[in-house]
């Protein structure tokens, strides 16, 4: 499937795979051959350091924007909407159809 999609582009698309808690040293141990193969075919960041706080949402926004949490404003995996008194979104709560996504 990826091979077929790849043919649709003049320039190869960028695919970012983020694995929470997966240190680059795990690749060197040879315990994840499929992920190791992906790294061989592309690139990876051996010396990447997470932003603080080291949580999923802040780090994903940092990766995608190049900004640190104090600049992009995402500082936790939970977000709160004062306008509707909504506890927000969590990585553990699936989004519902039509639910507001920050």
TrEMBL record:
InterPro entries: Alkaline_phosphatase_core_sf (IPR017850), Phosphodiest/P_Trfase (IPR002591). Transmembrane segments: none annotated. It comes from the Eukaryota. Coiled coil: none annotated. This is Ectonucleotide pyrophosphatase/phosphodiesterase family member 2. It comes from Dracunculus medinensis (Guinea worm). The lineage of its organism: Eukaryota, Metazoa, Ecdysozoa, Nematoda, Chromadorea.
